[in-house]
Amino acid sequence: MSALETAEPGQKLRRVAIDPVTRVEGHGKVTILLDDDNKVHQVRLHIVEFRGFEAFIEGRPFWEVPVVVQRLCGICPVSHHLAAVKAMDRIAGYERLTPTAEKLRRLMHYGQILQSHAVHFFHLASPDLLLGFDSEPTRRNIIGVAADFPEIAKQGVLLRKYGQEVIRHTSGKRIHGTGAIPGGVNKTLTAAERDEMRRDIDTMIGWSRDAVRLVERLHATRPEFYDFFGDAPSNMLSLAAPDGALELYDGRLRARDVDGAPIFDQVPCSDYDALLKEDVKPWTYMKFPHIRTLGAEAGWYKVGPLARLQTCDFIPTPLAEEERRKFVAHGGGKPRHGALLFHWARMIEALHAAETIRDLLDDDDITGTELMGDKGERHEEAVGVIEAPRGTLFHHYRVGEDDLVSFCNLIVSTTNNNQAMNEAIRSVARRELSGHEVTEGLLNNIEVAIRAYDPCLSCATHAIGQMPLQVDLVDSTGATIARGRKNFVGALA
């Protein structure tokens, strides 16, 4: 990736490292190159973990894959579970699910969307939004939010808990369940389980709507800041239903350009490889996808809530659609690309998830007993695509006649957002950091932009206050000229 600006020959640049980036799923670091006037020349987000799932899934029986591959993540395992099983449906010869099986999978998926959006917004992002980007780092966490905003924290915890219970009832466990199998599901939903979830869903819808209004009020306080912080204008990619509706479980591929004009629409997911190309950089383990016809420079894109709300034509649940219309009107009908707008879009999706859960629970098919579809001709290759909480997720497999996986390619949501995250932190560095003395608060601005994308850098989960940070200023010879540390509770040491 090229630098923001090219240094003059012989000019010495200092290197600032944020290592690790905190309050995200997984481990990464940011490096910033500054000149003697603290002017920013380069900013990069590095993913420093190597997972290897695409390699070691090879040789496994195909029916194991939906259970094994979800170990990629402890935050959104349902997304990998369902993307993989959608591919294995076709491998095993199941072209169509029963109504009960599809609706149970959808219920599982929307429980995942609700719990993941809740944990991100309330646990990981709200400390910055409610307490301040430069607030005392020892309090800038969910414990600090609970102390100052106890009702908001309570609702966030219980929203997540409710989503996890939906997952438990449909997949058998809150994390790494086994509910979806090639051809259908392996667990019915009893009337008692349905009634238990139905009892609290209206409260969850109300709390989700309150969260949307909370983000809306935050934007109203400083629209010029919230709309343009981490601005990264780009193309946008998502799934969409045939009628243009927001579709998180199924659908076909749709892309729009930076101004909202169509690039392609209703492309079968199996054709993703003809549409997208992944580039490799020597300084990170994460690839850089782009739209092939546009090339690497013009073809990169963003996925996830902010993209989905601006690629869809409408949301098929009334309360979320009402909020989407307000969101679109806020931008004057034109797409917006500021990083903090992700939170607004994310909570509109959480509201949509809660409404959809209610609708599914009220559907008589949800307690049906026909769990497996009719088996037909099996196939050697298949692609499963789903809208994970963080964005479009691709699973591509080939299986031999011996039923063993011979090929696996995964493009996860965070990989799709890789270039966008890099552009966002460059934007923040230019506006907030360039020319200023490096402080913990200013460095947190960089992290805030990364967090807005809700990146899942690995399957790691986090303990509060256990992420020390060291920032070194290094001259062009590699000598350390200044060093700052945050201790295990986040205070400068």
Task: Write up what this structure looks like.
The chain folds into 2 domains: 99 residues, no CATH class; 364 residues, Cytochrome-c3 Hydrogenase, chain B (Orthogonal Bundle). Strands 8-7-6-11 form a 4-stranded mixed sheet. It has a 3-stranded antiparallel sheet with strand order 1-2-3, covered by helices on one side. A 3-stranded antiparallel sheet has the order 12-13-14. With 493 residues, it is α+β, with helices and mostly antiparallel strands. The N terminus is likely disordered. α4 runs antiparallel to α13, α11 crosses α13 and α15 runs antiparallel to α16. The protein contains 16 helices and 16 strands. β13 and β14 form a beta hairpin. Helix content is 41%, strand content 18%.
DSSP strand content: 15-25%
Q: What name does the CATH topology of the largest domain carry?
A: Cytochrome-c3 Hydrogenase, chain B
- Gap between N and C termini, in Å? 33 Å
For the biggest sheet, the summary is: 4 strands, mixed
Q: What's the pLDDT, averaged over the residues? A: 88
The number of distinct structural domains comes to: 2
* Low-confidence sequence ranges: 1-7, 459-469
What would CATH call the class of the largest domain?
A: Mainly Alpha
Write down the overall geometry.
globular
CATH superfamily of the largest domain: Cytochrome-c3 Hydrogenase, chain B
